[in-house]
Amino acid sequence: MNRLFKIILSIFVIGLVTAFILFKSFCPLFNEFPMPTGNYSVGIINEHWIDPNLKYEQKERNEFNVQIFYPSDFDKTKKFPYQSEKIEALKKILPKQFMIPSFVWNCLLDNIYSYAQPNVPIANHENNYPIIIYLPGIGSEDLHNLYLEELASHGYVIAAIEPPFDILVSVFPNDVLIELNPTLAKAVKENNREEIYKYRDEAHERWSNYIEVTLKRLKKLNEDKQSIFYQKLDIEKIGILGHSHGGAVALDFCQKNKLCKAGINMDGWTKTYNSSKYFNTPFLFMLSEGMDQPGMSELLKNNQRPDYEQVTIQGAGHDLFNDRILQKNLKKVLGISKENYNKVRKEINGKVISFFDSYLKKL
Hints:
Elements: H1 2-24, E1 41-50, E2 63-72, E3 80-81, H2 84-98, H3 102-109, E4 113-114, E5 116-118, E6 129-135, H4 145-153, E7 157-162, E8 169-172, E9 176-179, H5 182-189, H6 193-223, E10 233-243, H7 245-256, E11 262-266, E12 283-287, H8 296-302, E13 308-312, H9 330-333, H10 341-361
Parallel strand pairs: 1-5, 6-7, 6-10, 10-11, 11-12, 12-13
Antiparallel strand pairs: 1-2, 2-7, 3-4, 8-9
């Protein structure tokens, strides 16, 4: 009996140690952020904007956050805490959503660093810099540093819009947390595609309005002598970049609005708003493997022109167009994954930079 007990105890201890080692191998949750490859270091400023014309269902809020990434001249190799406010907010809400203890999330989300430096001066190498508006996917966390830091390092100013209630969490002033709309949260949890699509369509015009408000605010910053962006924004060179639902909004906005001089859609489509008709704005449609929505082939067929491109990124899933491409993978930890996510990341970055360099910088 003692021998059996010792065997069982040994198996339990070995299993516990193995589980602990495996768990610790996931801390932090993300692999190391790569240093941006452009000539500039990267600055970041958080803005909170209020507009009297914006009204939301919940609590009649007329405000939203924007993160501005921009080229700077400081030490390129220095790292800073990654999305510190957002990470602290996620530590509070994720335990409730997934019924996983707080200490697990603390381990997974601590000690993550990227290269965005808060509130540093903008670079002076150019008279001004092209603007890119970024929109995320809907219904999940909005984590976008990887591709936006790369763009900023190549001489772009990127305004990343955070649509409140439509992403997992936004942090408003005084640490007020704006969590995901309960209707959308329920639909996402139940994978109710009909309800998700309905909510997404209702949010579409609101997101387009965020773009217009953001452009007006950027114009004011460009005219404000107290702003670090004073006369540093090229308001004639505006690009729109979006992932998932944000990509669908980017396509629709660039089809309808001449303010958009070049656009990129990362794996997004909505049959309600996206048209397959010809339009003359330079545009890049990047697709994950297996992405095939009605209307996409017609869009390509109707836009046979040098400045329209539709490309499938081999090895890319839908979530690899944001920072989740750096999320540690169980198969990778166990050494049995054949996926080369660095290759996918570099291909996405290369195509984004090349496209905007060709059709935005050279305007």
